[in-house]
Design goal:
It contains 14 helices and no strands. With 325 residues, it is mostly helical. It has a single domain, classed as Na+/H+ antiporter like fold.
């Protein structure tokens, strides 16, 4: 009886956390079999990832339900609060982390600090922010507007912020070629997706589960290839696996600081309960779905890109609270 009762719960847990389980398996596969996904592997990771990036951004554009966000557009104080946290306060906190972490963690790899900066300039999630806001009986239309709007802004604003913050920390690079790559691999397919939605809206909404599954599969492939390169270059042998535990500690600290700042801000702004809930769930979250492909565009085929991705990969389960969402 107990066994029969527990089996459906286990199946539900696995289904609810399939993407997180997939992330772990993708990383383990990279350590076990790095050859195919490495730079010169049979999967031709550079070509595969470029196609995957464009595909994900195309599906992001097609999936954004603009027709449903009109009701939330009038809550301008909520929008200013959320977008300020997403693209101003979060990056400033990330910059503080960048300069603070070497004092507390002298042996920390440069790529981890870049990863925290990158995490802090990403846009919010869409589905999770809206779902959790709805479950908590918050302002769902306001959450949908802000999450969607931050993703639209993030396609261009996130790379610009990364470039600006890297310059402020002394890590300069040429931005012209990067801007062209952003336009071709992210902005163009994202815009095409938004245009196509007018013609395939009903079909997309009907098959949204499968679109999400395809997007998640592409993300897992990108994560696999990113870790393959780091394994081939012996990055993890250099720094050791204790690096993951220390990074997780800083992720928890960052999440706690941002949660507190958002809570205090909603009190100071005298938000009602519904707006405060929407502000929290939109303001504290960062998208892994857009974060992984954008990282490849911004940081290229660096051998330590897995370290850059590590903070956002660890932040993903933390921000979701209960893993069922």
């Amino acid at each position: 009886m107990v066994k029969d009762f527990m089996a459906p719960q286990k199946i539900h847990w696995i289904r609810s956390n399939g993407f997180l389980i997939g992330l772990v398996l993708a990383v383990l596969l990279a350590f076990w079999l790095p050859g195919p996904g490495s730079k010169n592997g049979i999967l031709h990771a550079d070509i595969l990832n470029n196609f995957g990036i464009a595909l994900i951004l195309l599906m992001q554009g097609v999936s954004l339900a603009f027709e449903k966000i009109k009701d939330g557009a009038r809550h301008w104080r909520l929008h200013v609060c959320v977008q300020s946290f997403t693209f101003i306060i979060f990056p400033l906190v990330g910059l503080a982390f960048h300069f603070m972490m070497p004092l507390l963690w002298p042996s920390e790899p440069q790529a981890i600090r870049e990863g925290f900066l990158y995490l802090c300039v990403l846009p919010s999630t869409v589905s999770t922010s809206v779902v959790l806001t709805a479950v908590a009986k918050g302002n769902t239309s306001g959450a949908l507007f802000n999450a969607a709007f931050s993703n639209i802004l993030g396609v261009l604003v996130t790379p610009l912020l990364v470039h600006f913050l890297m310059q402020s920390t002394g890590e300069t690079g040429s931005f012209g070629p990067l801007l062209l790559k952003i336009v071709l691999l992210t902005l163009l397919p994202f815009t095409v997706g938004m245009i196509l939605r007018n013609y395939v809206m009903d079909w997309v909404d009907l098959h949204k589960i499968w679109i999400n599954r395809i997007s998640n599969l592409v993300i897992l492939i990108i994560v696999y290839t990113a870790f393959c390169n780091s394994v081939e270059e012996r990055i993890w042998q250099t720094y050791g696996f204790g690096l993951t535990g220390l990074t997780a500690g800083y992720v928890l600290l960052l999440f706690g600081i941002m949660s507190l700042l958002i809570y205090l801000s909603t009190l100071a702004l005298h938000f009602n309960r519904e707006d405060a809930i929407a502000a929290y769930f939109c303001g504290v979250k960062k998208t892994l779905a857009m974060g992984v492909p954008l990282a490849l565009v911004i940081f290229g085929s660096r051998s330590d890109i897995s370290l850059i991705l590590l903070p956002i990969m660890l932040y993903h389960p933390v921000q979701n609270g209960e893993l069922g969402y």
